[in-house]
């Protein structure tokens, strides 16, 4: 008989963990749907979705079933072999998108790492080495590896790690003239988030994405869409590029893709995929049977008119309530986003105080996010009930009333 496990508490984080995070004072231990309970039994409503990850909330029966069934069969093989869940999920992604080929990874950063490496490999192969420059957007975020953090347009994440990767240029988001001035025959790729997530929940303008596509075509460069945060139903479309009608050459996906199980994917065309021949790139865990079984089950649920139309309807419910709070308390200057990736911009007197709003919301039993110091971000379950939306918004209003009237 095994000895009972010793209890853990929040202080253990400070004692045992690397201090690169600053987690909340409470520890969630159980979740069901869009409700979470902490160690003390306190219930919270989850508007954070694990940072746009828990696409179907906590403990969704379809995902639980897929995971437990696969867990009883096969956990891991490595890519010396293929497996049925990976093949099934790859087929689903190809049949549902522009893509013809899929590469599986463990995370959004790894999916982007693969995308950027493929773009440079393609540029090398077609130019003999002269086409390697990548153009990304200011305030973009693409992951935490040295390559992805260098492509990301937020210096606070990339400084202090020695020499940066060369050949990366940043231009202002939604500034087509700046992109036109930067692109050249040396450009192998332009990288854009259709909705900037960490940069403040800022959707791209239609003309900017369309113009980027035309510039890439004119200069022989690839267009990469980072849909790690905006993808898998989050925008009200399976992928946000479908809303814009602008098709990329490479698309990256993660976060919601596994509904909480770590998985990422890079989607591309057959022509480009051929530049990743055997041995050029790889991942030990990429295409793991557990992750792909869960991801496949999630796609079956999310990629339906009922869920995607429901996301659009839920956006309107959030927007109406948040705009009402803006009028009543003066704390927000606007609401932006798409689907269930929503940003409420803090008004001038509240700029820089997003963390204060998060803390107050936690105290009222609500989990929300920030996107920088000036934006409150909402990324709940795509199937969150109207009752949970209304109760969560009521808790948010109590928090706002308390801090604005203090």
From TrEMBL:
Name of this chain's protein: Acetylornithine aminotransferase
Pathway: Amino-acid biosynthesis; L-arginine biosynthesis; N(2)-acetyl-L-ornithine from L-glutamate: step 4/4
Subcellular location: Cytoplasm
Gene Ontology biological process terms from the UniProt entry: L-arginine biosynthetic process
EC number per UniProt: 2.6.1.11
Sorted UniProt keywords: Amino-acid biosynthesis, Aminotransferase, Arginine biosynthesis, Cytoplasm, Pyridoxal phosphate, Transferase
Primary localization class, coarse: cytoplasm
Keyword Methyltransferase appears in the UniProt entry: no
Superkingdom of this protein's organism: Bacteria
């Amino acid at each position: 008989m095994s000895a009972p496990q010793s209890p853990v508490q929040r202080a253990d984080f400070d004692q045992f963990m690397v201090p690169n995070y600053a987690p909340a004072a409470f520890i969630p231990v159980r979740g069901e749907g869009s409700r979470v309970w902490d160690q003390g039994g306190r219930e919270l409503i989850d508007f954070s979705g694990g940072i746009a990850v828990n696409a179907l909330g906590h403990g969704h029966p379809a995902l639980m079933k897929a995971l437990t069934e696969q867990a009883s069969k096969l956990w891991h093989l490595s890519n010396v072999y293929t497996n049925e869940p990976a093949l099934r999920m790859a087929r689903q992604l190809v049949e549902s998108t522009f893509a013809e080929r899929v590469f599986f990874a463990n995370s959004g950063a790894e999916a982007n790492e693969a995308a950027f490496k493929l773009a440079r490999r393609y540029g090398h192969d077609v130019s003999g080495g002269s086409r390697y420059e990548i153009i990304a957007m200011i305030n973009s975020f693409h992951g935490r590896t040295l390559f992805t953090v260098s492509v990301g347009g937020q210096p606070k994440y990339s400084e202090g790690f020695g020499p940066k990767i060369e050949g990366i240029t940043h231009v202002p988001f939604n500034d087509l003239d700046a992109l036109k001035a930067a692109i050249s025959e040396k450009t192998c790729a332009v990288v854009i988030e259709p909705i900037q997530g960490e940069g403040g929940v800022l959707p791209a303008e239609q003309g900017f994405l369309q113009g980027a596509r035309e510039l890439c075509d004119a200069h022989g460069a690839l267009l990469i869409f980072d849909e790690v945060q905006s993808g898998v139903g989050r925008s009200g479309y399976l992928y946000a590029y479908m809303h814009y009608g602008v098709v990329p050459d490479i698309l990256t996906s993660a976060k919601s893709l596994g509904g909480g199980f770590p998985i990422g994917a890079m989607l591309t065309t057959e022509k480009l995929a051929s530049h990743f021949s055997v041995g050029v790139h790889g991942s030990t865990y990429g295409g793991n049977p557990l992750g792909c079984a869960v991801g496949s089950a999630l796609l079956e649920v999310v990629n339906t008119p009922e869920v995607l139309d429901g996301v659009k309807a839920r956006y309107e419910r959030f927007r109406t309530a948040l705009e009402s709070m803006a009028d009543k308390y003066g704390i927000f200057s606007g609401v932006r986003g798409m689907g269930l990736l929503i940003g409420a911009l803090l008004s001038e007197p509240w700029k820089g105080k997003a963390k204060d709003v998060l803390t107050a919301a936690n105290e009222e039993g609500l989990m929300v996010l920030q996107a920088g110091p000036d934006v409150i971000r909402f990324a709940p379950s795509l199937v969150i009930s109207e009752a949970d939306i209304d109760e969560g918004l009521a808790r948010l209003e109590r928090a706002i009333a308390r801090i604005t009237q203090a």
